[in-house]
Amino acid sequence: MTDAKEQAVLTERRDQVFWITINRPDRNNAMNDHVTGGIADGLRAAQADDRVRAVVLTGAGEKVFCAGGDLSPQPDGSPFKTEPSRPQLKLTDMFEAFEACTLPIIARVNGHALGGGFGLVCATDLAVGVKGARLGTPEVGVGLFPMTILPYMLRVLPRRKVLELCMCGTPWSAERAFDEGLLNAVAEPGDLDAVLDELLADIVKRSPTAIRLGKTAFHAVQDMPIREAQQYTQLMLPIMAGTDDGKEGFAAFQQKRDPDWPNS
Questions:
Q1: Phi, psi values for residue 90, rounded to 5°
Q2: Staple 90 to which of 15, 33, 49, 50, CB 3.0 to 4.6 Å?
Q3: Is the pLDDT of residue 114 over 50?
Q4: How far apart are CA 216 and CA 107, in angstroms?
Q5: Helix axis angle, 208-221 relative to 244-254, nearest 10°?
């Protein structure tokens, strides 16, 4: 019998790209412990595979990327199962896997991204969305607030936009999400994969070492005071220049040729 986690999340390596698909279309790809655990496992598997250059996160079907947390009620009427002696949610474990992954993670927003699904879009590095998708945080309408995804929302969007989303609960169109800087591109339904492929092609031909070290540095400095960030980045630059990729990139530039990345 197939494990429930494996059914809830499908993973597949397609050449140099590792795909993670939330596979609960009958539940609007809503997240439960199997989904969050499956995404975390997929990110760790991609990170451990030297052949992988990028990760794509998407949802099954053509209507919904992820509708957020599965609000099936617990016996006490609450939508969340909690254990006071172990307060950390599985959702938090998943977001820690996002933080640990040094590969570029791209959200393929094939439909609505709401609540926790909106948080997934914010947690990825890049995102492309389909026209007709709605993106937002409607939790206030059911007496909740998007607590666990706030840290990611605040890293992607201005403070007042975050509060507008959280307090009003009105979702954005894909076009507005693009205008606000949440999405890198918006595509017609039939063109979504072509737009995604173009973005992936640009990524996988670049230095994998530079991207891994650069993403690590990006995450490190985003919460540093400016002086600490300057000290960190001035140390990172010569380290990157001394890598095999750094040496090959400089040689290729001098010789006016395309680089042949040693670590690709």
A1: -60, -30
A2: 33
A3: yes
A4: 19
A5: 120
For residue range 207-222, list pLDDT tens digits in order: 999 999 999 999 999 9
Model confidence pLDDT, tens digit, residues 4-56:
656 999 999 999 999 999 999 999 999 999 999 999 999 999 999 999 999 99
Task: Write down the domain spans for the chain.
Answer: 4-204, 208-254
Q: In this structure, what token pair is assigned to residue 221? A: 């400095």
Q: How far apart are CA 166 and CA 163, in angstroms?
A: 5
pLDDT of residue 85: 54
Q: Which two tokens stand for residue 124?
A: 């990825």
73 pLDDT above the threshold of 50? yes
Rg (CA), the chain: 19
Q: Give the pair of three-digit tokens for residue 230.
A: 């300057």
- Output the six-digit token pair for 30: 């809503």
With beta carbons less than 8 A apart as the criterion, state whether 211 and 261 touch.
no
Q: What fold is seen in the domain 4-204?
A: 2-enoyl-CoA Hydratase; Chain A, domain 1 (3.90.226)
Pairing assessment for the beta strands 105-109 and 54-59 based on DSSP bridges: parallel
**Confidence (pTM):** 0.92
**Range list of H helices, the chain:** 4-8, 33-48, 90-100, 116-123, 150-156, 159-168, 174-179, 192-204, 208-221, 226-241, 244-254
